[in-house]
Amino acid sequence: MLSPDDVMEMSPNLSGRVLHLSRGGTSVVIDLDAVPHPAIVHWGEELAGSTDETLRGLAVAARPQRVSGGLDAPARATLVATPAGGWLGTPGLEGHRDGASFSVRLELVDVEADGHRARLSLVDPEARLSAQLELDVGTAGLLRQRITLRNDGDSRYTLQHLHLAFPVPWDATELLDTTGRHLRERTPQRHPFGYGTYLRESRRGRPGADATLLLAAGRPGFGFERGRVHAVHVAWSGNHRLVAERSVSGEAFLAGGELFAPGEVVLAPGESLTSPEVIGSWGDGLNELAHRFHDEWRSRPEHPRRPRPVTLNTWEAVYFDHTLDRLTALADAAASVGVERFVLDDGWFLGRRDDTAGLGDWYVDPTVWPEGLHPLVDHVRARGMEFGLWVEPEMVNPDSDLARRHPDWVLRGRTTLPPSARQQQVLDLAHPDAYAYVAERLHSLVAEYPIAYLKWDHNRDLLDAGSGPEGIARVREHTLALYRLLDELKAAHPDLEIESCASGGARVDLGILARTDRIWTSDNLDPLERLVNQRYTALVVPPEMMGMHLTSPVVHSTGRTVDLDLSAAVALLGHVGIEWDLTGTDDETRRRIAAWVDYAKRVRPIVATGRTVDVDGTEPGIDVRGVVARDRSSAVFTLTQTDTTVSYPPGRVRVPGLDPGTQYRIRVVGGSTHAAAQSGLPWQEHDIRLTGRELDVVGLRPPVQYPQRSTVIELVAQSDTQAQGGAR
Ligand code: DGJ
User: Fold this and answer.
1) Are 414 and 377 in contact (CB under 8 A)?
2) Which residue intervals define the domain Glycosyl hydrolase family 36 N-terminal in the entry (predicted)?
3) Which residues make beta-bridge pairs with 113?
4) Beta pairing class for 709-717 and 663-670
5) Which CATH number, 3.10.20.70, 3.30.70.20, 2.60.40.1180, 3.40.50.300, labels domain 615-726?
6) Which residue has the higher pLDDT, 322 or 727?
7) Do domains 4-64+75-298 and 615-726 have the same CATH topology?
């Protein structure tokens, strides 16, 4: 129950009660007496210094005046706003009972709260619905919301729409979201946040390559380093929607939730539905907003903590050309450069000689592997590497024994199959027999072979996904079954790591990342394109959970020829891997790869625990980003020349995020300079030290580089100056 400390009774002239949740630098102030149920008055910066009295005043200060042409009691954007409560914008909840009982007006009946958490109980006796709304401010200041809606009536309730709202400051007039496609996920786009509704929907049964990872609203021109910005993410791997809405009644909010197909959610009497978590973050700049996601995700007990093994994935090295000789040679080459995990990609199972057949038949193909995978697995492990295996458990090729035997296990909304994609269809994982089959296959494979890692792919969108002709839409049940399968596998094999891949990065969300250990960030290995993709993916995903691979010199997805040092520098600040047929490389190239792998192993503790820093305002043609150790004792930055610059030599770049009062020694780790540079880089030739403040405010000259080159610099605090650091 609510404790007296949490709820402030208003003085007689200020009617109502206020709830203040705070943690991790975030305050959430809730007016419990907003009508017909609570409204968030403030979500964002911690209101240090506020008193009970001022917070009560704040709630009153947010209340609207009555205006001409409006309602007699002006409506608020409450937590689950509906028209029956006076809300004229996008409702938080919509549903009906066989066409009737559309009206919903949830009222507060109970509050339980502690300092950072609240559970609000809402009921509508007339609509015969009740809801539990949970709000939790996490250790790093993320606001997580979740709702459980219950049908208290004696007839079925069809739920059409349910979202959770996060109000944003009125001066947040610019929106940022991401879009994209296969090979170009999470491309940013910005728009003015004007009156009306901006809607992003994912209808692909997975977030999709075009999905927005989050929807952000901030002060105009907000960047990574500065500018207040709020954002919302839906932690769900099925269909979802994100809304930004500015109302002429003077309220602006972001909202998110699952997106239901018609009839997908019908609650039987007494049945309830729990929504996915919708998670809000904020910051003075996107770096701070991202740190809240990273810090909180890292604080989970199940977060992968051991050093991220340098991985070699066989896909772009051999594609479907699986032969023991070729793969053992590749494993030898991988081991020689320091790889720690060898992942056998697509092509190992029954009938899978290309991408037209075999999905679903999860048995090792004896025509390719007469002795099973054992000879390869033993070879890999004998060279000190872990073994990983690719699977795509939710998928089925019509040309497979599985599809021939069990056509009823394939998702479809009508008698004909949904449009084909990559010659494959989707298995109805919510079908108990289909689930049992897939689960048995996966458990058996992991039991038979010492598989340390599954690369879990998902190569098509779900369309018309139902439980057979005249059945019901199944994306929600399918997604829940997927989660159950992942949870059960992890429980049965606690050391097993799983990568979420979906044609690269088409399933990137915190629902899947609650059950897996990393994502395959994109099938596009071109380092120049990866710069954008990785920067925006890292707004939510901690970098050590993002697969970043060295590409072969001619990038398969763009045809561009890239330098090894560029490829390595761009992969360095994530979970490093290699996707390249190393058997064709000469000794010198292998020596250079081995040196990068070695360096990546040295840097990975900082990557896995430190703070990402993306630098604003650098001249077009130069990209500066880095990661700073948690205690700010060291940092690694990349200075990447994406294009030529107008200035020549280029003007100074700033290196922010370090301790202002500490002096740092700066060392160039790798990179190559432009042949036209007439002299060495002066600061490189002297043993200079700069303070964190000098690096942030003034900066240094980047090297003159050819386009498409990168220089890695390492900054190490000088211990004699470090002690004074925090004090200045
Ligand atoms: C798509 C993935 O993103 C690739 O890395 C590879 O695993 C292929 N699928 C295999 O079919």
Assistant:
1) no
2) 37-267
3) 118
4) antiparallel
5) 2.60.40.1180
6) 322
7) no
**CA distance linking residue 13 with residue 128, whole number of Å:** 35
Structure confidence by residue, pLDDT tens digits, 497-513: 999 999 999 999 999 99
Alpha-carbon span 694 to 405, nearest angstrom: 69
State what percent of residues in the chain have pLDDT above 90.
94
What count of other Cβ atoms lies within 10 Å of the Cβ of residue 290? 28
What distance in Å separates the CA atoms of residue 632 and residue 723, rounded to the nearest whole number? 12
Angle between helices 432-448 and 475-492 (to 10 degrees): 30
Residue spans of the domains in the chain: they are 4-64+75-298, 311-608, 615-726
Give backbone dihedrals phi and psi of 396, rounded to 5 degrees, phi first. -150, 135
| Under 8 Å between Cβ of 644 and 621 | yes
| For the CA of 390, the nearest atom of ligand 1 | 7
The CA distance from 343 to 389, in Å, is: 5
126 Cβ contact partners less than 8 Å away, ≥ 6 residues apart: 103, 105
Q: Model confidence over 441-459: pLDDT tens digits?
A: 999 999 999 999 999 999 9
Q: What is the pTM of this model?
A: 0.96
Ligand 1 midpoint to CA 635 (Å): 33
DSSP-assigned states of every residue in 406-471: -GGGB-BSSSSPPPPBTTBEEB-TTSHHHHHHHHHHHHHHHHHTTEEEEEE---S---S-BBSTT-
**Cα–Cα distance for residue pair 447/105, rounded to 1 Å:** 53
* Residue nearest ligand 1's atom 4 by CA: 503
pLDDT, average across residues 386-398: 98
Active site residue 523: yes
Q: Does the domain spanning 311-608 belong to CATH 3.20.20.70?
A: yes
Torsion angle of C-alpha atoms 310, 314, 315, 316, degrees rounded to 10: 90
pLDDT given at position 87: 96
**Nearest ligand 1 atom, CA 455:** 7
Helix ranges (DSSP H) in 226-323? 286-298, 315-318
In the numeric block, which tokens belong to residue 607? Answer: 């990557």
Query: Under CATH, what is the fold of the domain 4-64+75-298?
Result: Beta-galactosidase; Chain A, domain 5 (2.70.98)
- % the chain with pLDDT above 70: 96
Task: Give dist(CA 478, CA 187) in Å, integer.
Answer: 28
Distance CA 241, CA 211 (A): 10
- Going from the Cα of 457 to the center of ligand 1, the distance in angstroms, rounded, reads 7
The alpha carbon of 455 and the centre of ligand 1 are apart by a number of angstroms equal to 9
With the most atoms of ligand 1 within 8 angstroms of its CB, the residue from 392, 453, 503 to mutate is 503
**Protein residues whose CB sits closer than 6 Å to any atom of ligand 1:** 315, 345-346, 390, 457, 459, 501, 503-504, 520, 523
Task: Give the number of other Cβ atoms within 10 Å of residue 375's Cβ.
Answer: 14
Distance between CA atoms of residues 256 and 271, nearest Å: 23
Q: What is the pLDDT of residues 202-260, one digit of tens each?
A: 999 999 999 999 999 999 999 999 999 999 999 999 999 999 999 999 999 999 999 99
Q: What are the counts of helices (DSSP H) followed by strands (DSSP E) for the chain?
A: 14, 37
Mean pLDDT of the 348-357 span:
98
> Quick one: which of 533, 519, 30, 515 has its CA closest to 276?
515
Angle at CA of residue 610, ends 276 and 632, nearest 5°: 145
pLDDT of residue 16: 58
Q: Is the dihedral of CA 290, 291, 292, 293 positive or negative?
A: positive
Type of residue found at 405: R
Determine the Cα–Cα distance for residues 666 and 700; give it in Å rounded to an integer.
10
CA–CA distance, 607 with 575 (Å, rounded to integer): 8
DSSP notation for 42-65: EEEE--TT--HHHHHHHHHHTPPP
